[in-house]
Every structure is written in C-alpha cells, then in structure tokens.
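Support reply, case 0932

Customer input (verbatim):
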Amino acid sequence: TQLANKLSALGTLKQKVRDYHSAIDLYNQSLHVREKMGEKESSGYALVLYLKSISEFRQGKYCPALENIKNVISIYQKIGDIDSALNAEEEAYKKYQEACSIHMENVAKAE
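Our regenerated output:
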C-alpha cells in the first residue's frame, strides 16, 4: 500500500501543476498496484479513481471521467460508504454526465 500511496501522491502533485497526462499515468500505476494487492473494492482505490477522473475531466476526456466516477460511486456503495458515494455524485457525476453528453452531441454534429 505504501507504493500505491506514493504513486497517487505524486499524481496529485502533477495534477496541481496541470500535468494531467503524468497524473493519470501515476494514478494508473497506483490503481494497478492496488489491484494486485486485492484492494479493487476499497476506499483507497475509489479515491485514486476519483482523482484520476478529475485529471481526465480537466483534459477534456469527459466520457472516460464519467465512467470512472460511476465506478467510484459503485465501489463506495459496495463497501457501505454512502456519504462518499453521495459526495462523488454531487461533486462530479452530474457535471461529468452533462459534459459527456455535450461532447457526444458535438462529435455527432461534426460527422
């Protein structure tokens, strides 16, 4: 868990300086370590996935961010952390869903 925590902390530093590509890469590494440790349904995994979704959203990857936030909410619900699930839904889900819909409409118009 220590390695996963360090990777996600580095991801957060990259996110703060708007290096979203590097942040996502570090978050993915952290998630991979957590998966190997059997922590795919843990609050730590959900938090890193949430942070990854923020970087994706800020990169304009609205639909992948939406998919990740859906997984975050699902994990929190499975582990019984209803407050965190509600917070993720209030803070990100609705905004990501709207942005993804607009993005898909714009893609359809461009075709």
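We compared this against your earlier run and they match. Two observations from our side: The mean pLDDT is 95. The chain has one domain: 2-110. Please reopen the case if you see a mismatch on your end.
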